[in-house]
TrEMBL record, chain A:
It comes from the Bacteria. Keywords: Cell membrane, Lipoprotein, Membrane, Palmitate, Signal. InterPro entries: Bact_solute-bd_prot1 (IPR050490), SBP (IPR006059). It holds the Pfam family SBP_bac_1. Residues 1-21 form the signal peptide. This is Extracellular solute-binding protein.
Length: 442, 302
C-alpha cells in the first residue's frame, strides 16, 4: 500500500513516540517465541480482525456464513502507518489486541522485534502453505527463522512499467527495456517538452523497490544482530542513476498522488510510470482522459536481457500477540488469503493483487483491460511477481527510515545534496534509531 | 489594544494633535486590511472544499480548482448521494455519532464545569485555591497527551471500543471550569445569593434557577468551545475505537482518506464528507454567535 499521508503519519508517530519506546523497553527487542503446540479450541470461537482494506467486511461476512463455529468480528481503522500499527502496539501492551491484524511487509519486522506476533508454524492450517504463495512473500512472513510462520501473505505489488504507447509510437522513440535505454529516452522526451516520469520524493518504499530489483539489500538480520546497508553499491547505483535524471531536469518533482500529479498524467506530461500492479487503477482514476493510450511492459533492466523485478507494497494477515485462538486465527487467515472466492471478492472490493499463486488466475486478471488498449496487463505483473528477489529484508524501524530518507530526497530535489547523501543520512539515523530502541545492530 | 494605545500616546507626544485623527484612520484601515487578509486565508480552504465537492473525480485534476464546472450542481447531488449510501450509509452513522459525542458531551461537560466553577467562586472552603490551580494546570496539558494513558486505563476496565471510551473523557473541561469561575465571580452577586437563601431556597435550587441564568452567556461560550473541541477531537477516538459504527466523523474521514490508495473513488467522498462535516459547526456558530461573543468578552473582564 502506498504511504500517502506521510505528514499525518509522522505527526501520529511523534505524538505517540513515548508509547513506542515504552513498548520496546519492556520487550527488550529480542525474545524468541518458540513455536509451541497449536491445538484447536473446543466449542464456538470468536475472533477479532482489524484491517483497512475497503470491503473486507463483506469477505468476513462470507466466512461467517460458512463457519458458524468460528465467528470473526471485523474491525477497522486508518491505514497502518496512519495510526493502526500504533494502535496495535498500544493494544498489545494493554493485552486487548485483535486476534488478527493487517500488517504490511515493511512493518512486519517492527512487530517481530517488539514481540508483537504469534508464531503459528505449528498450526495445521498453515502446514504446506508455503507452496501456495509467491516465493518471495513467504520469506517476508517467516524472516527465514526455523519453524516459524508469523503471518500469512495477503497481497503484493510487483512492479512493471506503465508507458504511453501512443506517444512513444508517434515520436518514434523505442520503448526502453534497460535503464540505459530509459535514460536515453528521458533526454529525447525532454526535448519533446515532457517528462519520462516523476521522481516521488516521499515514496521511499518505491525507491526501495528499485533497489530491490537491482539486487540491493538495505537490511539483514543474522538471527541476532541487524545490519543496515542503505549505502551499498547496488543502492548507490540506483541513487546515482536517478540523481542524473534529476540533474538533467528529465524527471518532474511533483508530490505523488496529488492533484498536480494526476493532472500531469492526465495531460500527457508523463510518458512512463514505474509502478506496482495497484497503480493500474490509480492511473485509470487519476488520468481518465488517457483511456486506451497506456500499455504495460516489464521494468527496465540493469543488464540487457535481465529478468529482475521489484515490489512496492503489500500486506500480510498476522496473528497478533495474545490471541487465545491461534489455530482458528491461522485457519481464517489461510482461507482469507488463498480461497479463490475470498480472493476474487478482495480484488473486486479492495483492489488487492493476491499473494497466493492461484490468485493470478482469477477472472479479473486474465482479461484484457480497456484502459490499457485491451492489453492483458496482469500477465506482465504475474511474471514480474515471479521475478522478485526473495532475499530482500525490511528493517525494524521503516517509518523512521522512510521519513529520514524522504527528508533527504526532498533536499536533493531542491538542489542541496544528492540522493546518495540522503541515503547516507538515512543510514546513520536508522542505526541511531535501532540503538535508541536497544535493538542489536552491527 | 495596548499597542494601538501606545502608538496613539507616542503620536500625541511627537506630532501635533490634529494629525492624530488621520493616523487613526490609517491604523484602522491597516487593521481592516489585516483582518481581510486573515478572513481570506481562513475562508479559502472552505471555498475550495465547497467547489471541489461539486466535481466528479475526473474533474479534480482537469478543471480550475477554485471555480465551479457548468454541471456542478448535479455532480454535487450525485456526490452527496454516493456519500450517504457508501458502505451501507456508514457516513450517516458517523455524523450521528459525532452529534451525540459533541452534543451530549458538551452539554454535560458545560453543566459539570459550571457547577465546579460556581462552587469555586461562591463557596469558601479549605484547599479551594489548590483545587482551582490543579484544574488550571489541566488547561495546560494537551488532550492528545492524555489519550494514551486514558487508553491503558480504559483497557483495565474493558471500556475501550465503546461509546463511553470517547464520551466520558469528553465531558471533562478544565478551561470551562476556569471560565465558569471567573464568570460566576463577576456576574452572580453575593447579595442575590444571600437573598435567595433568606427566602428559603436550597443551594441546588439557587444554582439551577438563579445562578445558571445569570451565567448563561458564559455557558453558551463554554458549550460552543466544548462542542467544537469534541467535534474536532480525533486522536482519542483514533486510539480508542476499532468498530467503525462507533467512529465520529473525523476519524471516519481520516480512515477513508488513508485508504484512497486502494479505493480511489473515496477521494471525492472524503472531500464532500469533509464539507458536510463542517456544516453542523457552522450552524452551531451562526445560531449561537450572539451569546458566543458576549460570553467571550464577559469572560475576559476580570
Amino acid at each position: 500500500m502506498k504511504t500517502q499521508s506521510k505528514m499525518v503519519a509522522a505527526a501520529v508517530a511523534v505524538v505517540t513516540a513515548f508509547a513506542l519506546s515504552a513498548c520496546t523497553g519492556s520487550s527488550g527487542g529480542d525474545s524468541s517465541t518458540a513455536s509451541s503446540s497449536c491445538a484447536p479450541s473446543s466449542g464456538k470461537v470468536d475472533l477479532t480482525f482489524t484491517t483497512w482494506v475497503p470491503g473486507m467486511d463483506k469477505v468476513v461476512d462470507l466466512w461467517n456464513q460458512k463457519n458458524p463455529d468460528i465467528q470473526v468480528k471485523f474491525q477497522t481503522g486508518p491505514s497502518g502507518n496512519a495510526g493502526t500499527y500504533q494502535n496495535f502496539f498500544n493494544q498489545i501492551k494493554a493485552g486487548n489486541a485483535p486476534d488478527l491484524g493487517q500488517v504490511e511487509y515493511d512493518a512486519l519486522p517492527n512487530f517481530r522485534v517488539q514481540d508483537g506476533l504469534t508464531n503459528i508454524a505449528a498450526c495445521t492450517p498453515v502446514s504446506g502453505a508455503q507452496d501456495k504463495f509467491v516465493d518471495w512473500t513467504w520469506k517476508q512472513v517467516t524472516f527465514d527463522e526455523k519453524d516459524a510462520v508469523y503471518a500469512v501473505p495477503q497481497d503484493t505489488g510487483p512492479i512493471a512499467m506503465f508507458y504511453r504507447k501512443d506517444l512513444f509510437d508517434a515520436a518514434g522513440i523505442p520503448v526502453p527495456t534497460t535503464w540505459d535505454e530509459y535514460a536515453k529516452d528521458a533526454a529525447l522526451i525532454k526535448a519533446q517538452g515532457s517528462y519520462i516520469t516523476n521522481f516521488p520524493k516521499t515514496d521511499v518504499n518505491w525507491f526501495a523497490g528499485m533497489v530491490w530489483q537491482n539486487g540491493g539489500q538495505w537490511f539483514k538480520n543474522d538471527g541476532n544482530d541487524w545490519t543496515v546497508d542503505l549505502t551499498g553499491d547496488k543502492s548507490t547505483q540506483v541513487a546515482d542513476y536517478w540523481q542524473k535524471l534529476i540533474d538533467n531536469g528529465e524527471v518532474s518533482k511533483l508530490a505523488s498522488f496529488s492533484d498536480e500529479w494526476n493532472k500531469s498524467f492526465n495531460d500527457g506530461q508523463q510518458w512512463t510510470w514505474i509502478s506496482a500492479v495497484w497503480g493500474a487503477s490509480t492511473l485509470e482514476t487519476g488520468a481518465p482522459d488517457t483511456l486506451g493510450k497506456w500499455a504495460v511492459a516489464p521494468m527496465p533492466q540493469w543488464k540487457s536481457g535481465g529478468d529482475q523485478a521489484g515490489d512496492w507494497g503489500g500486506s500480510s494477515t498476522a496473528v497478533l500477540k495474545g490471541s487465545k485462538h491461534p489455530y482458528e486465527a491461522a485457519k481464517f487467515a489461510m482461507w482469507l488469503n488463498s480461497d479463490p472466492e475470498a480472493l476474487a471478492l478482495e480484488n473486486k472490493l479492495g483492489g488487492l493483487y493476491p499473494a497466493a499463486k492461484a490468485g493470478a488466475d482469477l477472472d479479473a486478471f486474465t482479461s484484457g483491460q480497456e484502459f490499457y488498449g485491451g492489453q492483458k496487463i496482469y500477465d506482465v505483473f504475474k511474471e514480474a511477481s515471479s521475478q522478485v528477489n526473495p532475499d530482500f529484508t525490511w528493517g525494524p524501524t521503516m517509518t523512521q527510515t522512510y521519513t529520514d530518507v524522504s527528508d533527504g530526497f526532498g533536499s536533493a530535489l531542491g538542489g542541496s545534496g544528492t540522493l546518495t547523501d540522503a541515503l547516507k543520512t538515512g543510514q546513520q539515523k536508522t542505526i541511531d534509531a535501532l540503538k535508541a530502541q536497544s535493538i542489536p545492530v552491527k | 489594544m495596548s499597542t494601538t494605545a501606545t502608538q496613539r500616546r507616542l503620536i500625541r507626544n511627537d506630532a501635533p494633535p490634529r494629525t492624530a485623527g488621520r493616523e487613526s484612520i490609517v491604523s484602522r484601515s491597516g487593521a481592516m486590511l489585516v483582518m481581510a487578509v486573515f478572513t481570506f486565508y481562513f475562508l479559502i480552504p472552505v471555498w475550495w472544499l465547497l467547489v471541489q465537492s461539486t466535481k466528479t473525480r475526473g474533474e479534480f485534476s482537469s478543471t480550475a480548482p477554485l471555480w465551479f464546472t457548468p454541471d456542478g450542481f448535479s455532480s454535487f447531488v450525485a456526490n452527496l448521494g454516493t456519500l450517504f449510501s457508501y458502505d451501507s450509509g456508514v457516513f450517516v452513522r458517523w455524523l450521528v455519532n459525532s452529534v451525540f459525542y459533541a452534543g451530549a458531551g458538551a452539554f454535560l461537560g458545560t453543566l459539570v464545569a459550571a457547577m465546579c466553577g460556581y462552587a469555586l467562586a461562591k463557596y469558601q472552603f479549605r484547599g479551594r485555591e489548590v483545587l482551582f490551580n490543579v484544574v488550571l494546570s489541566g488547561v495546560l496539558v494537551p488532550a492528545t497527551a492524555l489519550a494514551l494513558p486514558l487508553f491503558l486505563i480504559f483497557s483495565q476496565v474493558q471500556l475501550t471500543n465503546t461509546y463511553w471510551a470517547v464520551f466520558l473523557p469528553s465531558i471533562v473541561s478544565p478551561f470551562g471550569v476556569y471560565l465558569a469561575r471567573i464568570f460566576a465571580a463577576s456576574s452572580v452577586p453575593d447579595e442575590l445569593l444571600e437573598a435567595a437563601r433568606l427566602d428559603g431556597s436550597g443551594e441546588v435550587r439557587t444554582f439551577f434557577t438563579l445562578a445558571i441564568r445569570l451565567m448563561s452567556p458564559a455557558l453558551v461560550t463554554m458549550f460552543l468551545f466544548q462542542f467544537v473541541a469534541i467535534w474536532n477531537n480525533f486522536f482519542l477516538p483514533l486510539i480508542m475505537l476499532r468498530d467503525q459504527t462507533l467512529f465520529p466523523v473525523t476519524l471516519g474521514l481520516y480512515a477513508w482518506n488513508s485508504s484512497i490508495g486502494q479505493a480511489p473513488e473515496l477521494r471525492s467522498l472524503v472531500i464532500i464528507g469533509a464539507f458536510v462535516s463542517i456544516v453542523p459547526l457552522i450552524i452551531a456558530f451562526l445560531s449561537l454567535q450572539r451569546f458566543w461573543s458576549g460570553g467571550l468578552a464577559a469572560g475576559s473582564i476580570k
